[in-house]
Input
Amino acid sequence: MDGVELLVNGGLLVIFLVVLILPFRVKCIEHNLEAFLFACGVAALTIAGLASIPGETTGWSLAILEEALLAPLKITTVFGIPVGIVQIVLLVGLLIYWFHHRLESAIVGMVERFPLPAIVFLLIVILGLVSSIISAILASIILVEIVNALPVVKKAKVEIAVVACFAIGLGAGLTPLGEPLTTIVVSKLKGEPFNAGFTFLFDNLAIYIIPAVIALGFVGVFLFRRSHTGDTKLECIIGRESLRDIVIRAAKVYLFIMALIFLGEGFKPLILAYIIHIPSAGLYWVNIVSAVLDNATLAAAEIGPTLSLQQIVSALMGLLIAGGMLIPGNIPNIIAACKLEITSREWAEVGVPLGLALMAVFFVILFVPAWVGMG
Output
């Protein structure tokens, strides 16, 4: 390893540790996470520019700038009009601003008709399963508006939101419509030998994801029963945000997505030099880094037609599960944390143990039978 490579890898490792640790240690960073991650992304991308990788572009480029500026504004096209995360967040915020009384009445009616544990279970499971069709973004926006209005204490809202974001992140993995990661994977595997089409992910992941989403519904109910005090003074209330608050939240989401793109591209030298060469069982655990990095970038680097189906499934499950552990890990997390004002520490207190438990369970499911068969 020459001096430049050592400098690049060491610098990127330091940035990774800073991203992982400081949001839990420094209050001002915790409350300005978007700007902090953006600054770390700029630093990572600048350091990555010193690396020289044959056949790969690292560091700053017009393509990266264009992607960072446009990706939050265009994830798909509807009737020829680009639609992105920011527009959806802004539009839904405005609709709630104009029709918040009707939405409040609908949620009040739901709470009056159904017990809260049933609402929590159905909210997690239904949004988790339909996120693959309506997208993880829209599912998470629906989630936070309902959770925000529920007559429950803040701790219960945090737990419901975190568990539901795990479910949404997993469920979105069933089709190319769910999130950028799935779109990239199907695109990379569309040729031989897999000839991946629209149902490829569902055919290979549904057996793992659907039971996991249902299990998360029960986990959500368990956590809710433990945290909710049954305070009868709490009411269903959807506070009417100001137009300024709605615009600021959309801007924060925009900055967050830019930061994740910069971080993902900035860490490319480490990903290409080390991560993609790890055996599948090890890669499954190493993909925990998607808790702080853009899992779409990791998927683009890791997944390809030369892998076996078992390697692809295990890598994807690692990415999808770990993405729920911390706020930067997934777009639903970002939307929920911004709207519900969940701090990095509050998220991690629920997300890290739940994510590690899921990782352990699926490690046994994915790898142990094969090892036993080899024995």
